[in-house]
Every structure is written in structure tokens, then in C-alpha cells.
Design a protein that fits this description.
Layout (H helix, E strand, L loop, with lengths): L12 H6 L12 H15 L3 H12 L10 E2 L3 H8 L3 H13 L4 E3 L7 E4 L5 E8 L1 H5 L1 H42 L6 H13 L12 H20 L23 E3 L5 E3 L1 H10 L7 H25 L15 H4 L11 H8 L13 H11 L7 H11 L1 H21 L8 H13 L5 H13 L2
Helix pairs in contact: 2-3, 2-7, 3-5, 7-8, 7-9, 8-9, 11-17, 13-18, 14-16, 15-16, 15-17, 16-17
Length: 450
């Protein structure tokens, strides 16, 4: 049987190569199998609509004969009727399909397409188009389709990651500008706009090399700025090293005197200040942030006190009823009574497994709870310097209990930033706007129901 053109048509190398494909002997190819091969081929090669239409009609004319070649012989009139194409368009499509190695023309002596029958009328041969190359390369088509699907998945994942990084960067810039305007820089938004202009729309091609890395870098930069702004310029909430035994307190800025009272360790503080520890941020780095947030945090303290009915006309916080008769200023409150008052007024702080039986243990408990409020160590240093270590510890414990009660209450939280709340609370105690002893005893009475 003829494998390539026999005349009347220019010989093409692709036709000779395609003619080398053969079928398995003794096997009849069904139209369904040939159609499956056609679908794989059109997806693997990305055939344009005209070629798909013509090839589909050729496949539909396969009669499932037990031949060595898959020959079809539809007339041009039949194909024009089925496809709606002109005869010239059909010829262009035949040449393109031949060049792609999908079909091989088998021309008759007169250039017509027809079947050859024997004396009994059985079709034994035909002149037309050989579809054997289409079916014989089905495994190659399937492999190419798998590669294309994998490539599309890689492109989709790349654009998905870029979209995630872009949206996260946009949200981080907005949050930084609204929450910490002093940390926002116009260069961040300019770089965002430049990357946005470089980012193409989703398509069939991979995004530019390095675009995802650029988005990820900008996202990390903005989120790191937001993180440092929330931590007062430090790298973590609890920035004081503790490499001693787990039974030792995290707070080492005080020592016990002969009476067991916690007092400032002047020598240790001086040596630490002279050595310039890298774990503690310089004071000037946090002062700007503190000044900007102080008025907001003091407003939160006043809102909390107002909700409890604890303010007087003019904005001064009013001591609890009878507090003046029951408690003197904090410095006058007997030190041996403070631990018992703490245990009864602030039961939530006892759940951390830290004892509060002596004033020194109360100081250690306050130092332990300070980082849990998200307060920088400069808050504790300021509190000790302004109101003393014992009162500073009582303030931390008191604010911790207030925060726990606020969370347990449900609904909108009045204390949105407990670390900043603590700083404002300490400053109001130091200025005399809040009587710490009266507040502690009032909380104790509310807790005990007396």
C-alpha cells in the first residue's frame, strides 16, 4: 500500500516521516480510540480552530476496517458541507496537518479520493488520507499534554504566590500607615507601585524572573517595620536574656536587703549601663514612640475607670468609697499586708505558679508578668524609678488582673494594648492621679463580695 504522495502534490518531508509510523498487527482501531488520540493531539499541539474542525471530520469518517493503515476518503463536497469552510481553506488545512505529521495524503492517479473494491464489493484499499500517524503517536501526545498541564500548574502557583505577597504587602502598608504613622515611609508605597507596574496579568507565560522575590522582600520589610513598631523598637516582646536556672526569676534588677525587702541593685545597673548591653534598646529609640502613644493609653485608662464609676469632675480618678479611711498612700501601706492583698484581689495572677508570700516575691512576680503584658522593659525601669519596685510590681499585677477581667467579660475589649496601658497607668500613679493602694483594696473588696 502507498505511504506517501504519488504525484500531483508536492512531496513533503513531514509526510515521509509520518508514513514510517505503523499499527500493531492484528488489531482493529476503533473510532473511539482514534477520537481520543485526536483530542490528545489537538491539546498537545494547540491546533487552531480550523485545523481541529477538519481533523475531527476526518476522524469521524474512519470505518474501523481491519487494515494496516487508517485510511479515510471523504470528498471535498462532504467536508465543505460538514465544516462550512471553502475549498481553498480545506486545502490550506490539509497542508498544515501534513506538515504537523498528523496525516499523510495518499493520492489516486486522477487526484480523486475514493475506495477500491474487489469483485464481491468489499473495500480492500482507498485513496485519501492516512490517519495512522495521528493514532501511532498517541503516547507522545499524552506525554506532551502532561508536560503542558504541569507547566500551567507552575505558572498558576507562581501567580498565586505573587498575588498572596502583593495583597499581604498592601495590607501591611495600610496597617502600618494607620496604626504607626511615625514608622511609615513613602518609599515603601513607591516601591509597591513600581512592583505593581511590573506585575503582568495572569497568562500562559511565567512571570518575570525575580518578581516573586521582590514582592516577598518588600512584604518582609513592611511586616518587620510593623512588628518592631508594635514592640517599641525591639526584636521581641521579652527581650531580657535569662540563662540561669529555671527556678530563678526573669528579673535581676533588684536584690534583697537584710530585711528581705527588694531594693534597686545600683552596682549591677551601673555596670550594665556602662557595658552597653545589646539586649536592651537605647532609651532614645523608644521615647518618640512612648510620647505619641501616652495620651492614647491614658485615655484608655480613664475609659476603664469611667466604666467602673471611678472618676471625679475634672478627670481625676476618684478613689473607691472609704478608701481614704482604709488605706494611706501606697508608700504608707504596710509591706507585710501587700502579699495577702495581692492574693485576694488578683487571683488570676496566682495561676502562673509564682509565689507571692513576701514583698520580694511580689516584686519578682511583677517582673515575671511584665513581658506577658507585652510591655517593654523600659516600662518596668520607668516604673521602678518613679514609684519604687514594690509599687511597680503591684501596678503590673493590678493591670494584669484588669486585663484578665476585661477578656473574660467578653464583647469589645477596653484595654486594646495592655503594655501601653501599663505605661500610662504607672505614670498616672506617679503623678497622683490614681491611688494604687485604694484601687487594690477596692478590687479585693469586689472580689470577696464585701
Amino acid at each position: 500500500m502507498q505511504l506517501a504522495s504519488s504525484g500531483g502534490r508536492r512531496l513533503r518531508h513531514a509526510a515521509l516521516v509520518a508514513g514510517q509510523h505503523a499499527l500493531d498487527s492484528g488489531r482493529i482501531v476503533t473510532r473511539k480510540e482514534l477520537s481520543a488520540a485526536y483530542r490528545l493531539a489537538q491539546e498537545a499541539l494547540g491546533l487552531r480552530p480550523t485545523l481541529r474542525l477538519v481533523l475531527s471530520e476526518l476522524v469521524a469518517n474512519w470505518g474501523e476496517q481491519p487494515w494496516e493503515r487508517l485510511l479515510v476518503w471523504p470528498s471535498n463536497e462532504h467536508l465543505i458541507l460538514r465544516t462550512g469552510l471553502s475549498e481553498r481553506a480545506l486545502r490550506v488545512a490539509f497542508r498544515a496537518l501534513t506538515d504537523l505529521g498528523l496525516i499523510v495524503p495518499k493520492d489516486s492517479p486522477n487526484g480523486k479520493r475514493y475506495a477500491v473494491r474487489d469483485a464481491a464489493g468489499t473495500t480492500v484499499d482507498a485513496f485519501g488520507f492516512d490517519l495512522t500517524p495521528l493514532y501511532a503517536q498517541r503516547e507522545s501526545w499524552a506525554g506532551r499534554v502532561a508536560e503542558l498541564k504541569a507547566e500551567r500548574q507552575r505558572i498558576k502557583r507562581a501567580f498565586d504566590e505573587i498575588t498572596i505577597a502583593r495583597r499581604a504587602t498592601e495590607e501591611a502598608i495600610d496597617a502600618l500607615r494607620e496604626t504607626y504613622p511615625q514608622m511609615w515611609r513613602p518609599e515603601m508605597e513607591q516601591e509597591y507601585d513600581a512592583l505593581l507596574a511590573r506585575t503582568p496579568r495572569r497568562g500562559t507565560a511565567m512571570p518575570p524572573v525575580g518578581l516573586l522575590d521582590a514582592w516577598s522582600t518588600l512584604r518582609c520589610t513592611v511586616e518587620r517595620s510593623f512588628f518592631h513598631a508594635g514592640n517599641g523598637g525591639t526584636t521581641c516582646r521579652h527581650n531580657k536574656d535569662n540563662n540561669d536556672s529555671s527556678s530563678e526569676t526573669c528579673y535581676s534588677g533588684f536584690r534583697k536587703d537584710e530585711g528581705g525587702e527588694a531594693v534597686p541593685d545600683g552596682g549591677r545597673s551601673a555596670s550594665a549601663g556602662s557595658s552597653g548591653s545589646q539586649d536592651e534598646p537605647p532609651e532614645h529609640e523608644v521615647q518618640e514612640h512612648e510620647v505619641q502613644e501616652h495620651e492614647v493609653q491614658e485615655h484608655e485608662v480613664r475609659e476603664t475607670m469611667t466604666a467602673a464609676g471611678r472618676t471625679e469632675p475634672g478627670g481625676r480618678v476618684r478613689p473607691s468609697p472609704g478608701a481614704a479611711a482604709q488605706a494611706e498612700p501606697v508608700g504608707g501601706l504596710a509591706a507585710d499586708l501587700v502579699p495577702a492583698a495581692i492574693r485576694e484581689a488578683c487571683p488570676a495572677t496566682m495561676a502562673y505558679g509564682r509565689p507571692a508570700r513576701t514583698p520580694s516575691e511580689v516584686v519578682a512576680l511583677g517582673a515575671f508578668l511584665r513581658p506577658m503584658l507585652g510591655a517593654n522593659e523600659t516600662v518596668w525601669t520607668e516604673a521602678v524609678a518613679s514609684i519604687g519596685p514594690l509599687r511597680a510590681a503591684v501596678a503590673v499585677i493590678y493591670v494584669t488582673q484588669l486585663y484578665e477581667d476585661d477578656l473574660n467579660r467578653g464583647g469589645d475589649s477596653r484595654i486594646r494594648n495592655p503594655g501601653g496601658y501599663l505605661r500610662a497607668f504607672v505614670r498616672m500613679v506617679a503623678s497622683g492621679k490614681i491611688d494604687l493602694a485604694a484601687d487594690l483594696l477596692a478590687m479585693r473588696r469586689r472580689r470577696m463580695g464585701t
